[in-house]
Write a structure and sequence with these properties.
Blueprint (H helix, E strand, L loop, with lengths): L20 H26 L4 H36 L4 H13 L1
């Protein structure tokens, strides 16, 4: 897949991944929502809210981050890893295995 910047999207030279502006926009939007959730938890603690309510919000943030991570992982597998395999770099499979172990 080619990106507008380099024509070689997901080449891992220097461990960089070029993302489209739309991808960046979507990821940034999701991160801003998560950031707002975390600020909300901070405010709940300042307001002495009940532990149950705070913990439910903490759980929601964890699930939001997990979902974001899954989205990035899916893109990584479909683009970066697939490209490296096509180029004959099977060492990428070891990297992905280690990554998945860290994510568990």
């Amino acid at each position: 897949m080619n990106c507008e910047q380099c024509g070689k999207c997901c080449i891992t030279e220097g461990k960089k991944t070029h993302r489209t502006e739309e991808e960046k926009k979507n990821l940034s939007k999701r991160l801003n929502i998560i950031e707002g959730q975390v600020r909300g938890i901070n405010q709940m603690i300042s307001d002495d809210r009940y532990c149950n309510d705070v913990l439910i919000q903490v759980s929601a943030v964890c699930k939001s981050l997990q979902s974001l991570g899954n989205t990035i992982l899916e893109s990584h597998l479909k683009n970066c890893v697939a490209y490296e395999i096509q180029m004959g770099n099977l060492d990428i499979l070891d990297e992905v295995t280690q990554l998945i172990q860290k994510l568990q």
